[in-house]
């Protein structure tokens, strides 16, 4: 892991679409001495994403791509990533589906999903978990593959679902664990390098 300490930290881009609470936790993690990553770039699919405030606060370069022309935007993003020598992409609440061409990106792409994958891929996970009266849900960090929420799992955290949980309550409980899990998954991934 020595390879990614000090000025050699792995250049990382975080992709967001909304609140950006995972982005915030990743930034805080990246600033720790033991962290193998440095966040150099933030991509947002919306100019209204609340998470962009962290880009401003922590003075991280940011760009907005609305995907109106998906292929053109993806090409532009890939160009930017190459120019900035980005080796790791962390999807953090990014609500766009990356094309097969994009995921050929010359580096690692990770995603965090608010369920115990392979269960509950896609949207409205908490609603479906509660509807099905599941006793447990959780969150998963995984590699991004060409199929939605389907790449190899890096790390998972189980969270108990209480009878009184609403989708909102459950989402809050799981989000808290996501903020711990994403940095842990990155540490795990780089421990053997
Ligand atoms: C998180 O719960 C993340 O797991 C989820 O969106 C939320 C973003 O929150 N991602 C997905 O559902 C992707 N399939 P944040 O903007 O506060 O990090």
Question: How does this model look, in words?
Answer:
- This protein has 193 residues and is α/β, with parallel strands linked by helices.
- It has two domains: 97 residues, Rossmann fold (3-Layer(aba) Sandwich); 80 residues, Formyl transferase, N-terminal domain (Rossmann fold), CATH 3.40.50.
- Helix content is 32%, strand content 23%.
- The protein contains five helices and seven strands.
- A seven-stranded mixed beta sheet has the order 3-2-1-4-5-6-7.
- Helix 1 links the parallel strand 1 and strand 2.
- The longest helix has 25 residues.
- The N and C termini lie close together (5 Å).
- Bound molecules: glycinamide ribonucleotide.
- The site of glycinamide ribonucleotide has 15 residues, from helix 1, strand 5 and helix 5.
Q: List segments where confidence is low: pLDDT < 50 over at least 5 consecutive residues.
A: none
- CATH topology term of the largest domain: Rossmann fold
Please give the order of strands in the largest beta sheet: 3-2-1-4-5-6-7
> In terms of structural class, how would the helical and strand content be classed?
alpha/beta
Element order: H for helix, E for strand: EHEHEHEEHEEH
Distinct compounds present: glycinamide ribonucleotide
**Quick one: how many beta strands?**
7
Tags for this entry?
single chain, 193 residues, alpha/beta, Rossmann fold, seven-stranded mixed beta sheet, 5 helices, 32% helix, globular, binds glycinamide ribonucleotide
């Amino acid at each position: 892991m020595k390879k990614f300490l000090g000025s050699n930290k792995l250049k990382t881009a975080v992709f967001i679409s909304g609140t950006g609470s995972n982005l915030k936790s990743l930034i805080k993690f990246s600033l720790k001495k033991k962290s193998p990553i440095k966040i150099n770039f933030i991509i947002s699919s919306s100019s209204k994403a609340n998470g962009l405030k962290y880009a401003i606060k922590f003075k991280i370069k940011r760009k907005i791509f609305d995907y109106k022309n998906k292929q053109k935007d993806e090409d532009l993003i890939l160009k930017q990533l190459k120019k900035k020598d980005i080796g790791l992409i962390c999807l953090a609440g990014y609500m766009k589906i990356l094309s097969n061409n994009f995921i050929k990106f010359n580096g690692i792409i990770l995603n965090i999903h608010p369920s115990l994958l392979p269960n509950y891929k896609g949207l409205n996970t908490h609603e479906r978990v509660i509807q099905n009266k599941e006793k447990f849900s959780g969150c998963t960090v995984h590699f991004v593959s060409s199929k939605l929420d389907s790449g190899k799992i890096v790390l998972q955290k189980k969270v108990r679902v209480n009878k009184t949980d609403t989708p909102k309550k459950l989402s809050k409980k799981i989000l808290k664990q996501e903020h711990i899990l994403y940095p842990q998954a990155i540490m795990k991934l780089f421990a053997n390098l």
